[in-house]
Amino acid sequence: MRNILHIKASIRGDESISNQLGDRIVAGLREKGDSRLAIRDLAAEELPFVSAERFAANLAPADERTAGQAELAAISDRLIEELENADTIVISTPVYNFGVPASLKAWADLVARAGQTFKYTENGPVGLLTGRKAYIAAASGGTKIGSEIDFMSPWLTFFLGFLGITEVEIVAADGIMGADGEAVIAAAQEQAERIAA
């Protein structure tokens, strides 16, 4: 049984190219056999930014939290549980102003928890979510993925690796506002279908 977590970060819903690419990847993965799918649409909800109080609540052991801390930590607990339950993660994200959407950064801040998704050792931090594969389905109007102005894909790939998710594959429809935008989208859709086949 494959457990898939699809994280969507675009504000454009069904019209989003990154969401469409991610949906194609998910569909292909699900055709391979039995699977369970969880979808976390970051644009459909407002994740909280981490405050000092929320940070302290997230780090407090669950059995030692006050009622207020338990309430503050609840969303982080849920997001981490979704990651822990998944063996395949698909992240659909646009490039906004050369980086990830604020909602995706908020998600990252909530799932990065010392002692649960990573740990500190004498040799530096070690990710604890090993054995998982991630796909990044990306779209951008003008930023070429992998270019010097792309701060989304290197950051997101590094962050996933920090959590122990080192097998990451990127499908990108980048520079879609250019003259050959339709061809770029079509090529990315074909790539999404191939990698999930």
TrEMBL record:
NAD in keyword set: yes
Catalyzed chemical reaction(s): 2 a quinone + NADH + H(+) = 2 a 1,4-benzosemiquinone + NAD(+); N,N-dimethyl-1,4-phenylenediamine + anthranilate + 2 NAD(+) = 2-(4-dimethylaminophenyl)diazenylbenzoate + 2 NADH + 2 H(+)
Subunit structure: Homodimer.
Primary role: Also exhibits azoreductase activity. Catalyzes the reductive cleavage of the azo bond in aromatic azo compounds to the corresponding amines.
Protein family per UniProt: Belongs to the azoreductase type 1 family.
MF terms in GO: electron transfer activity; FMN binding; oxidoreductase activity, acting on NAD(P)H as acceptor; oxidoreductase activity, acting on NAD(P)H, quinone or similar compound as acceptor
Record keywords, A-Z: Flavoprotein, FMN, NAD, Oxidoreductase
Superkingdom assignment: Bacteria
Organism expressing this protein natively: Erythrobacter litoralis
Keyword Nucleotide-binding included in the entry's annotation: no
Lineage: Bacteria, Pseudomonadati, Pseudomonadota, Alphaproteobacteria, Sphingomonadales
Cofactor: binding comment: Binds 1 FMN per subunit.
EC number from the UniProt entry: 1.6.5.-, 1.7.1.17
Gene: azoR
Protein name: FMN dependent NADH:quinone oxidoreductase
HAMAP family on file: Azoreductase_type1
Every Flavodoxin-like fold domain range: 3-194
